[in-house]
Write a structure and sequence with these properties.
With about 300 residues, this protein is of the alpha/beta class. It contains 10 helices and 16 strands. Strands 3, 5, 6, 7, 8, 15 and 16 form a 7-stranded mixed beta sheet that branches. The model has no long low-confidence stretch (mean pLDDT about 95).
Length: about 300
């Protein structure tokens, strides 16, 4: 089969390799679509090793999101071959991941695909929506609270808006000025252009400061200043943490795959609460072009590879 890997080159490399076999508790998925995310660019550039998030290896698999059909199963798996599924490959150090023709994942990282969207669209939500949903668990949110979402037009930020409204929160969104229409369409109650003094602009809306911050754009202290004393700050990147100022709890959030989270997201997609956004599709053979396009910035929605 063909698979995309990082081997320390400027571009990801498409290789030929044997089709992997599922072990006990694992499923093999015939990939229909797999989204490209900024984390894939970071892994290809070696940043995961640089940040100490994984050990150095001669080869890293690429791709986190996947949608496709179950092709084979190991013992102890409750999904049947032919089932349409979505999955999340959350282990950085895997030699093969979802940018491939087939991928093997643990059964807890896989669930049935939403019935109201096609597999291309379904491949765009597992990583980013799981990150946003787990961030809200970390925030210990309660209905009626306020949350600031930075990078609100991006993958995680867009889901943080939709989920925040679903949970009964007031959502203040920060993004580029040209993205105001998008983030308001996603449900944001208030919009703050990212070029502004973020703390001052937010405190004009909520003088005491917001209860929680999902810092998808990694603004850091400049965004934390908009949080009330004793609030919570979710930091979504490796590397050093912002300081815990004014009694604010700062948590470094790393996504982890669970079927419980994926099941909840599938339910919300089928209910129309959470959306999927496809920006453009590329054949797997043109994966380098998709990576280059994402690196240029300005993509709204996900670029999707199709084997």
């Amino acid at each position: 089969m063909r698979a995309l890997v990082a081997r320390g080159l400027d571009e990801p490399e498409l290789i030929e390799i044997a089709v992997p076999e599922p072990a006990a508790g694992q499923v093999r998925i015939k990939v229909a679509a797999a989204a490209v995310n900024p984390v894939d660019l970071a892994v290809n550039a070696g940043l995961a090793v640089q940040f100490g998030l994984t050990a150095a290896r001669p080869q890293f698999g690429l791709g986190w999101d996947v949608a496709g059909t179950v092709d084979a199963v190991g013992p102890g798996v409750d999904l049947q071959p032919g089932t349409a599924v979505v999955g999340l490959a959350d282990l950085l150090g895997r030699a093969l991941k979802t940018h491939a023709e087939y991928v093997v994942l643990d059964t807890d990282a896989v669930t049935r695909a939403p019935q109201n969207v096609d597999l291309t669209a379904a491949s765009t939500f597992p990583l980013n929506a799981s990150t946003a949903l787990q961030a809200y668990t970390t925030l210990q949110r309660e209905p009626g609270q306020t949350v600031l979402v930075t990078g609100a037009a991006g993958g995680v930020g867009g889901y943080a808006i939709e989920l925040g409204k679903h949970f009964g929160l007031t959502v203040i969104a920060s993004a580029a000025a040209e993205d105001e229409e998008l983030v308001r369409r996603l449900g944001a109650d208030h919009f703050v252009p990212r070029s502004h003094d973020l703390s001052a602009a937010v405190r004009e809306i909520v003088p005491q400061g917001v209860d929680g911050l999902i810092d998808a754009a990694i603004v850091g202290v400049g965004a934390q200043e908009a949080v009330r004393n004793g609030g919570r700050h979710v930091h979504l990147q490796g590397g050093p943490l912002p300081p815990h100022l004014r009694g604010i709890t700062v948590v470094q959030q790393f996504v982890h795959a669970t079927r419980t989270v994926l099941d909840e997201l599938v339910r919300l997609i089928e209910a129309g609460v959470v959306s999927t956004r496809v920006a453009e599709t590329y054949p797997l053979d043109d994966a380098a072009a998709a990576y280059a396009r994402l690196a240029k910035g300005g993509v709204r929605g996900r670029l999707v590879l199709r084997p």
